[in-house]
Each structure stands twice: as C-alpha cells, then as structure tokens.
Design goal:
Blueprint: H1 2-9, E1 14-17, E2 20-23, H2 26-33, H3 36-40, E3 49-51, E4 53-58, E5 61-64, E6 69-72, E7 75-76, H4 85-102, E8 107-116, E9 122-128, H5 134-140, E10 145-146, H6 156-169, E11 181-182, E12 193-205, E13 212-215, E14 220-223, H7 231-238, E15 245-255, E16 258-263, E17 269-271
Parallel strand pairs: 6-9, 11-12, 14-16
Antiparallel strand pairs: 1-2, 3-8, 4-5, 5-6, 7-10, 8-9, 12-13, 12-15, 13-14, 15-16, 15-17
Length: 274
C-alpha cells in the first residue's frame, strides 16, 4: 500500500494532506512552526476589521464592545466546566493565556468563510495589528488543539504543524493528556463533545458523500460536506488506511447508539506514530 511505502521512507510521522498521504518528520514540523512569516501567509491580503475586546469568555471565545461573541477559528480549547479537574485547569490556563495575549493590543478580526456557528457566535480569526494570531499562539503553547471545521480551513495546515511541535515538546495539554484524548484500548461509548480519538481503521463503508471509516474502538468517521475530494476519489484514498492506526479529532455525537464523528478536513486525521 502507498501508506506502507511512505512509512518505510519516513517513519517519524505520516499525515493525510488534501486527500493525499504524505509524511513529514517532527523535526521539519517544529522548524516550520517556528517561522512566524509562514504562519501569517494563510491569511495574507484578507480584509481585517479593528475591534475592541471587552471580555474573555474562555480560551476560544471573546466578547466585543458591540456585544458580538466571537469564536476563534481553527482550534478548540477545553471547557471550563469539564468533568475532570485536570481539564478544568487547562481550560483556565487557556483563558488566561488568551487574555494576556490580547491585553493592551490593537485587535483585528478576519471573518471566516462560514460567518457564524450554530450558537450564533461570529466565526473569525483574531489577530493583532503586528500579525500575531491568537489561535496560532494558543496551539503553539499546547493550550488549544487544532481542528478545521466546515469551510473555515484557510490555516488548517499551519495550525496542524504548530500542534505537532507543541506535542513533541510536551507543552500544555500534551504534557499529560486528559479525558479529551481517547486512546485505542478505550471504547468510545456514549461520550460527546470534542475529543481526539485513536483507533485502527477496520474498514471503509458507504459510497459517495456517505463514505465512512470504521475504527476498532467503535467510532464511525464520516466525511464532512466540504471534504476537498469527491466521493469516489476520497474512497480510493481512504482505502489505503485500512489496517492503519489513526488519530481523528472533532466533536463526538451518537446516532442510534453508535458514536460518530464528522471529519471536516484532512488536517483532522493523522496516522499515529510508529
């Protein structure tokens, strides 16, 4: 299989990239993450709106002086009301870090292609006038987990590289992963909310827009509507993953008692380390 050939050539880590499998050593990922100009290019030449932030709700949501609630694009931070004290502590750290990052700075918004989420919050990239990006900062510190959702995927691969570097360095969440990380031996059960789940691909089911990966931990992973390949091509590429151990990230739900996760973008799927 293509995956096997790539793993032999680059055993450090393999990534699923725009529907094609490629591999990259973590050393390269860390080097890329450290080059700030590269991190800025994913939003180059896009219109930015100056705003005033009056409150930090949590690590990925702020409130503006015009009462707009803004959800940062490209990452997820843990919930302040998480079930475990460890996860609550990391959520508080993310909120504090975001506040310190924005304090006293001229803040700009770059609206997402999808302008609002289902909660009515504005979806935007939150940046400083000097080019610093809030999501990229939090992910680089291990205080947020990169995740591409819907059509807001401009910076998906930049955030993915930053997340890899934070993981390799054991920063923040990666120092001791909490309940948000579901490794292979643990069944998903009726869990909900954001998780990173690890499992082995047992088979590919369905066709076209209903193509799904079935993992050995019971999770069914379906492709989102903005997946960048058509159904037939996506299925052919995903077949190369059968038998491989992968990590997927996103929000768990349950359909007829079966755990399900929508895979919005290839950056949300990685081959596990070997």
């Amino acid at each position: 299989m293509l995956v096997d050939k790539l793993q032999k050539r680059h055993p450090a880590r393999c990534l699923f990239f725009v529907g094609l499998l490629f591999c990259s050593t973590l050393a390269v990922a860390e080097s890329s993450a450290s080059r700030l100009p590269e991190s800025r290019t994913c939003l180059a030449d896009l219109a930015a709106e100056p705003v005033t932030v009056v409150r930090i709700t949590d690590g990925d949501t702020v409130v503006l002086d015009d009462a707009r609630r803004v959800r940062l694009i490209g990452l997820n931070t843990l919930e302040l009301n998480a079930s475990s004290e460890q996860d609550k502590q990391m959520a508080r750290r993310a909120r504090q870090a975001l506040g310190e990052f924005l304090e006293g700075q001229a803040v700009m918004l770059i609206a997402g292609r999808d302008p609002h989420d289902r909660h009515g919050r504005s979806l935007a990239h939150v940046r400083l006038s000097n080019g610093g990006d809030a999501a990229q900062f939090l992910v680089s510190q291990g205080l947020g987990l990169p995740v591409a959702v819907g059509n807001n995927t401009r910076c998906a691969y930049v955030l993915q590289r930053l997340g890899q570097a934070a993981r390799k360095a054991g920063r923040g969440l990666w120092a001791s992963p909490g309940d948000w990380y579901l490794d292979q031996p643990r069944r998903i059960g009726l869990r909900r909310g954001f998780h990173v789940s690890k499992g082995r691909v047992e088979r590919i089911s369905g066709r076209g827009s209903r193509t799904s990966l079935e993992l050995d931990n019971g999770l069914r992973v379906t492709l989102g509507r903005y997946w960048p390949r058509n159904g037939k091509q996506a299925r052919a590429e995903l077949l190369a993953l059968v038998g491989e151990e992968v990590e997927v990230r996103g929000w768990l739900s349950n359909t007829n008692g079966k755990p399900r996760l929508i895979l919005y973008h290839p950056a949300n799927l990685e081959l596990a380390s070997h």
